[in-house]
Amino acid sequence: MNLQEEMAALVKEYKSSGLTQKSFSARKGIGYPKFNYWYRKLAGEQVREPTGFLPVRTQGSSVPAEAVEVVYPNGVKLRVPSEDLSLLSNLIRLY
């Protein structure tokens, strides 16, 4: 069995294990970066888990919003007046 076949078998086992990639790779004695590389390679880069912020698309509204609210992953809520979106942009970059 070559390395690609071996890693494909491990990725298949991981998917049914219910473990995180870090836990699974530790149990199998494989470095997490190596396992993650093979997981992404074999999945064709389509199984990327989101980290951080995701793009948001808005549609035009006839009623302007008074404020924009952003909820950070740690639960902190941030309300910024909608006319000052540059401030919002700068605050997001701080996180």
Q: Helices, strands, pairings?
A:
Layout: H1 3-15, H2 21-28, H3 32-42, E1 67-71, E2 77-81, H4 85-94
Antiparallel strand pairs: 1-2
Helix pairs in contact: 1-3
Structural class label? mainly alpha
| Mean pLDDT metric | 78
Largest sheet at a glance?
Answer: 2 strands, antiparallel
The H/E string reads HHHEEH
Written account of the structure:
This is Transposase. It comes from Echinicola vietnamensis (strain DSM 17526 / LMG 23754 / KMM 6221). The chain is mainly α and 95 residues long. It has 2 domains: 3-42; 65-95. The protein is built from 4 helices and 2 strands, in the order H-H-H-E-E-H. It has a two-stranded antiparallel ribbon with strand order 1-2. Helix 1 crosses helix 3 (32-42). The longest helix has 13 residues, at 3-15. It is elongated and about 60 Å long. The mean pLDDT is 78.
Short structural summary:
This is Transposase. By secondary structure, the chain is mainly alpha-helical.
Attribute tags:
Transposase; two-stranded antiparallel sheet; mainly alpha; 95 residues; 11% strand
